[in-house]
Design goal:
The chain is built from 16 helices and 5 strands. It is mainly α and about 375 residues long. The longest helix has 18 residues. Helix content is about 50%, strand content about 5%. The C terminus is likely disordered. It has a domain of about 250 residues: HUPs (Rossmann fold), CATH 3.40.50.620. It has a 5-stranded parallel sheet, with helices on both faces.
């Protein structure tokens, strides 16, 4: 496959394009996003300090002045750390337990909130319900198997903010490490209609407790709660942040992005590359290459080993099948025998959401942030 000469994205993204120098559209989008949304050095720090001051004023006389979603991973943990230690905020940590947390992720969250004296507000998803939703996505033959979790997490952050009368939420999304995800690989992260349509067709357990939002609720939440992404306003280097957290919290880092979830690790390392030839390491490494946190040769060397050859693969496969209540043979059949389908094969809110947010996967994140600068 043709590969970008600047990053390591290739034609496993069916919509990738290259310029006359062989540089892909994802790299050009990265440059545009950096120019529009990333503020570095002292200027960025001053802007984030000004936002923090505004958050404090709005949160005066309240128990919490902001919400921070936490997963046990580096990005969200670092946001919580800097919110408290650097900017003097009083956050409420919010977490959605979808049944797939690794023990290490739980330990990271526990140590973090204890160290910084932060309250933790957790929503535990009904497992029978969520298992049925995940099985419906497997049966549907779509690549974006994490959409139900993404929808629940995003929704619950807003629900928590409204419950406690909080006007601001901080997230770990950022241009430097999350700029190269192809639309074909995953979309519909906030789309309840997409999730409901797939579950109505392939599921059997009624959805009663999953945090979700209609289009009207989506518009209401985003109008009344401001989303801020601090990692675009500080000089965020993932490796340096990991070392800082390890020193301060005895934080445990993972071998891959979002691998604090067992299901996510198996999904990204095994399901996607084996079934669709989508290797998410490519987009993760490419973002780091463009932000100067990894060199291209190192990324190509790591990619030379198939992602599914990771130490816990067989153990994860057995665990995922057992937890979903199916055999390994059934899991493989869902993965390899079902017809390939995608987001546009099911009714969704895509056209409306795109008109609000723009077609850029991360565009809405940074536009929301810019509203308060």
């Amino acid at each position: 496959m043709a590969t970008c000469t600047r990053c390591v994205m290739d034609e496993s993204d069916p919509f990738i394009t290259f310029d006359e120098d062989g540089v892909c559209n994802h790299c050009h989008r990265y440059d545009s996003m950096v120019e529009r949304y990333v503020v570095s050095g002292s200027e960025g720090f001053v802007k984030m300090s000004q936002i923090a001051d505004k958050i404090k004023r709005k949160g005066k006389n309240k128990k919490y002045d902001c919400v921070v979603g936490v997963s046990g991973g580096v990005d969200s943990t670092y946001v919580l750390y800097r919110a408290v230690e650097t900017f003097g905020l009083r956050p409420l940590a919010v977490h959605v337990d979808n049944g797939w947390n690794s023990e290490l992720a739980v330990n990271n969250i526990t140590k973090t909130v204890k160290e910084f004296g932060v309250d933790l507000y957790t929503h535990v998803i009904d497992w029978d319900e969520f298992r049925d939703i995940q099985l419906s996505f497997l049966k549907a033959g779509v690549p974006d198997l994490e959409i139900p979790s993404d929808l629940a997490i995003h929704t619950f952050i807003f629900q928590a903010a409204k419950k406690f009368g909080i006007d601001y939420a901080l997230g770990g999304g950022n241009v430097r490490t999350e700029s190269h995800l192809p639309k074909a690989w995953s979309q519909g992260h906030r789309d309840w209609k997409y999730v409901k349509t797939i579950h109505d067709k392939y599921g059997s357990v009624p959805i009663r407790t999953l945090p979700r939002m209609t289009l009207l609720q989506y518009a209401y939440y985003h109008k009344t709660v401001k989303m801020i992404y601090p990692l675009n306003l500080i000089d965020y280097n993932k490796q340096d942040a990991t070392e800082e957290l390890r020193h301060r919290l005895d934080f445990f880092s993972y071998e891959g992005k979002h691998c604090e979830s067992i299901y996510t690790r198996f999904y990204q390392r095994y399901m996607l590359p084996m079934r669709f030839l989508y290797d998410k390491r490519r987009c993760h490494y490419s973002s780091l290459i463009c932000s100067g946190q990894m060199n291209r040769e190192e990324a190509l060397s790591l990619l030379s080993t198939p992602s599914w050859r990771y130490p816990q693969m067989e153990q994860d496969k057995e665990y995922v099948a057992k937890k979903l209540g199916i055999t390994i043979e059934e899991l493989e059949r869902y993965l390899f025998e079902n017809a390939h389908k995608g987001y546009d094969d099911f009714p969704n809110y895509g056209k409306v959401l795109n008109s609000w947010l723009g077609r850029n996967t991360l565009g809405f994140i940074f536009r929301d942030r810019m509203k308060v600068l």
